[in-house]
Amino acid sequence: MIADIGPDHCYPGEVDNAGDCELVIPGTQANLGRTASAVTVYAGLSSAAGEAVSARLTAYNANNQEVASSAAPIGVGMTTPITALSGAADIARFDLVAEGPGA
Q: How far apart are the C-alpha atoms of 101 and 8, rounded to whole Å?
């Protein structure tokens, strides 16, 4: 699965132009069907950002408490693995968010 989570998309009801959006958040969330001890996503950019961009993967348990987090610099292509690893099989959901001046 490939998801476009770039900042060039706005919330529903807003114009789909990042310069016109009130709240631009380049990221996504996912809920797991069963808990896991690790989650890995492959992150990257569809085009060059011009400035450094990293992606942060944060995992949460069923009580919405952060249990793991990891970040890595990303470039063009969905080729950078980012893993959030917990000491227990308690990951119920995760967030993936782009960070940095190019995000």
A: 14
Residue 18 · residue 102 · CB < 8 Å: no
Is there a contact between 5 and 28 (Cβ–Cβ < 8 Å)? yes
Query: pLDDT per position in the chain (103 positions), as tens?
Result: 445 555 554 544 545 555 555 555 567 889 999 999 999 999 988 788 888 889 999 999 999 999 999 999 998 988 999 999 999 999 999 999 888 766 6
Instruction: Read off the amino acid at residue 86.
Output: S
Helices (H) and strands (E) in the chain, counts: 0, 6
pTM: 0.77
DSSP 8-state symbol, 47 = S
Q: How many other CB atoms are there within 10 angstroms of residue 20's CB atom?
A: 10
Q: Check: CB of residue 43 under 8 Å from CB of residue 79.
A: no
